[in-house]
Specification:
Blueprint: E1 19-24, E2 28-30, E3 37-44, H1 58-63, H2 68-75, E4 79-86, H3 93-102, E5 108-114, E6 122-123, E7 131-132, E8 134-142, H4 150-157, H5 163-172, H6 177-185, H7 200-219, E9 228-235, E10 238-245, E11 250-257, E12 266-271, H8 285-301, E13 306-313, H9 324-333, E14 339-341, H10 344-353, H11 359-365, H12 367-374
Parallel strand pairs: 4-8, 11-13
Antiparallel strand pairs: 1-5, 2-3, 3-4, 5-8, 6-7, 9-10, 9-14, 10-13, 11-12
Helix pairs in contact: 5-7, 6-7, 7-8, 8-9
Length: about 375
């Protein structure tokens, strides 16, 4: 880890209080159960400290190489102070506080009074980082003004801008994926008469999916790569191998869960050159999180390729932490130099040595490889 990281934060003791003033990272959570009337609220510790941003920053967690227990330690320091709201008409004062909070680029102090004493428990989600045990909120108020950058305020204030364009503009202005997801979730993007809150798990995948889909409109026009490139990376027991094949855009993700991990079977989703029209029901949010990291790299090198991805989990990954794990692990793949090969067979030999699952099973289940064998192109005959 880097020395700049506040190591003392892991030793902080959680003080359970019914009334407190705490520094929200800033962070909110919007549930999906009972839609369109849902639970939503604030995530904050029960005290104030300047490093509170680290409590809800997956990008920093990966950059600093935090372990699973360390991530859980950070999440355990917060309380989920919640209330009910209508997704389509979020008009309460608490909703307005949420909208202010998610635009801030630094932690904000909140004064919160709960209806009862909170419990020290963390709930785990496939999509979002672990959420602290919820407690009904009685009242809350911001005790300082959020620091909202002009570039965020300008985009949020434009009620004639469609949500898709708002997401893209925030991304181009180098706003983190985590904050973009919060802004979308709070109902701050889209045409004025169409703005609604978005459950957190939906906003996360919507952000990953929309941004990568936008990039693909350009990627499909780029020239193909000229050699086989293999990238790999491992984080929190998630091992990724990403093979770039000289060919037009298509993408397949094969997830293999070994015994003792979050999932203990194989999941496969894929798309060919044409834009995907249905949701990736097998790999779900991890499919789009990985696709975003891949598209970022292809956009950077201005090339297109066929993408073959194998993800294997080890027993180290025995608690779900959210799709930020695949997103940041895949992004990390492209921070390492690739291995280069002259043929698909040579690349597969290397991937096979690093994969615990029998390689022939992977090849048999791959729709992408079947398509490559059956759809030969003119240059294959030259």
């Amino acid at each position: 880890m880097k020395r700049s990281f506040p190591h003392h934060i892991f030793s902080k003791k959680v003080e359970l209080k019914q009334e407190f003033s705490g520094s929200s990272p800033p962070a909110i959570f919007v549930g999906a159960w009972g839609y369109p009337k849902v639970f939503t609220g604030f995530l904050s510790p029960t005290n104030s400290f300047k490093e509170a941003a680290i409590l809800d920053s997956p990008e920093t967690w990966y950059k600093e190489g935090l372990k699973l227990k360390q991530v859980l330690s950070l999440r355990e320091q917060m309380i989920y102070s919640r209330f009910t709201t209508s997704i389509k008409k979020p008009s309460s004062r608490l909703n307005e506080m949420q909208k202010e909070l998610v635009q801030s680029i630094r932690p904000c102090d909140l004064e919160i009074k709960l209806k009862k004493m909170p419990r020290l428990k963390v709930n785990h989600h496939k999509f979002a980082p672990p959420i602290p045990s919820p407690v009904e909120i009685e009242k809350a108020q911001l005790t300082e003004n959020p620091k909202i950058p002009k570039k965020i305020d300008k985009i949020v204030s434009d009620t004639d801008l469609k949500a898709v364009c708002g997401l893209e503009n925030l991304y181009k202005n180098k706003i983190s994926i985590t904050q973009i997801q919060k802004i979308l979730s709070a109902g701050l993007l889209g045409l004025k008469h169409k703005r609604i809150m978005v459950p957190t798990k939906w906003s996360i995948t919507a952000t990953d999916s929309t941004l990568s889909k936008n990039m693909l409109t350009e990627i499909r026009n780029y020239p193909e790569i000229s050699e086989f490139l293999l990238f790999s990376n491992t984080y929190l027991g998630n091992h990724y191998q990403i093979l770039l094949i000289p060919r037009y855009w298509s993408y397949q993700l094969i997830e293999i869960g070994n015994p003792g991990t979050v999932f203990s079977q194989e999941w496969i989703d894929w798309e060919s050159y044409a834009p995907r029209k249905t949701y990736a029901t097998n790999c779900v949010g991890g499919y789009y999180a990985a696709r975003l990291g891949i598209c970022e790299y292809l956009t950077k090198i201005r090339k297109q390729a066929t993408i073959f991805v194998v993800r294997e989990t080890s027993p180290e990954y025995n608690i779900p932490l959210g799709v930020w794990v695949p997103r940041e692990t895949v992004r990390g793949c492209f921070q390492n130099p690739p291995e280069k090969f002259n043929s698909l067979e040579d690349a597969f030999k290397t991937m096979k040595r690093r994969t615990k699952t029998p390689w022939h099973k992977i090849e048999q289940k791959s729709q992408l490889l079947k398509e490559m064998k059956t759809q030969r192109r003119l240059k294959d005959f030259l």
